[in-house]
Every structure is written in structure tokens, then in C-alpha cells.
User: Fold this.
Amino acid sequence: MNHPIFSTPVKGIVLGAAFALLFSAGVQAQTNSTGNIAGHATAGDTVVITNPKTGFTRKLTVGEDGHYKIKALPLGSYVVTVQHADGTVYLTQPAKVQIGRTANIKQD
Assistant:
């Protein structure tokens, strides 16, 4: 079909826009290099995650619903420690943070 809308310049613009969208989506996927750790504990408990290799540490207090989620963690292997408000540690567990995934901590 020889319709003006399908002319060579228009095709080039459409193809260029399509490639730009594909490229920007690929760049965004490559820059997301974090993951999460989540679990359940007693309200008021303290959760500490530490990456022994890098020394990176993050700490939080568990909310009233008992669920916790530590987001946007750098990739790597961590040790998750949960302790009561009095400082008594009752859980120490390894966790591996992978791109875009949540490592779920289970209590036995």
C-alpha cells in the first residue's frame, strides 16, 4: 500500500521510538540491584541484618502487627538476628538477598 502515513520518515520515527522504549526498559532493569528481607516476630522485637563481608547493617523495631520487611538491601549474604526488647537473642539465621526478590525468614 502506498499511503503517505507509511512513508519512510514516519517508519523511521516509529522504529526509533520503539527502540528507545526497549532500551530504557533494559537500563531500568539493570539498575535495580537490590532485594528485601521479610519475616514475622513479636511486636517490639528488634531485627538486625548484617552483611559480614561488607559490614553493612540495618536495624528496625517490629511493629504492632508483627511483620517486618527491610527493603532495598544491597545484594549479598546476610545474618538476620531477632531479639526481644530485653536484648535476649532468639533467632539468628542466614539470608541471601537476590535481585528483586524477598528472602523470607522463618522461625522454627
